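Q: Here's a chain of 303 amino acids. Please give me its 3D structure as tokens.
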Amino acid sequence: MAESPSGKDGFVRSMLGPQLNSAHSSAPVYGFGTSTREHREKTFVSPQHSKLQPNPKASPGPAAYGATSTLGKQTDGRLESSPNWVFGSGDRFSGGPKASNVGPGSYNASSSIGLQLTGGDSSPSYGMGSSTRDGVQTVYISEDHSNSMLAGRSTKTVPFYSSPTAVGKQLSSVKSTEPTWVFGKNKRFQDPELNAKAKIPAPGAHGERVRTGMGPQLLSAFPSAPLPGFGTSTRDHAAKLFMSPAHEKTKSYGKGSPGPALYLPPIAKRSAPSYGFGSCDRFYTRKMALRIGNTPGAAHYNV
């Protein structure tokens, strides 16, 4: 049967690092070396290897070599210089006569709205007429137009037309008057019975005449409810009361008996179980596993 990957403590064993279980082989562990260059120079491998080893102290470092730049003009004849491009410094119009044309902002462009002073056609413009009514009457267009201007002047004009309202009483017999409603002017309590009822006071107007139903009732028609309370009699006074011969025999019962604190609890009973927080280390099993893993193997002992 294959072994479970989890240990007794329920944790899954890691496959990295030293294996505590002898059935599993530990993988090799690699790290960075801690040897220095001086210590490496003292290491002897073979005479041939020692002859091939150069003196690292006599060789120059990388900064001692001068690396020529590949940008710009190459001084070394073996390297070809790359082409360079720059901004020209020649005159703009060196090839011919300079242009004498002015820029667009030098022209005075007249507006195309309104009266055109140059060869352009002026657009028609409209405005409010300034002629009076008398001036319009003197204008002659045609005979028919002149006759129509005089039409209606001899008739009697109505200075103001009054349109009758459709709300309220209609004066014209052709139109019917709509019904109207108003508030009545009659008195509220014309009936003697209603007038008598109106004089009855409201429920809140009775005042002190409504008696409370709690506590002693002053009116003999209403009985007062019983009021229980705490008694004020003492124990000595209660001992003098006589009810019956049988009651007198039971008065002394218990006076010579000891109190509850004088009784010892029985020892034969078992105590109920109690639970608390454990005081064991939380990582006890892991620490034991690491302690066992740090134990040196058999090859580390000198017999």
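Q: Can you summarize the key feature?
A: Confidence is low (pLDDT under 50) at residues 1-7.
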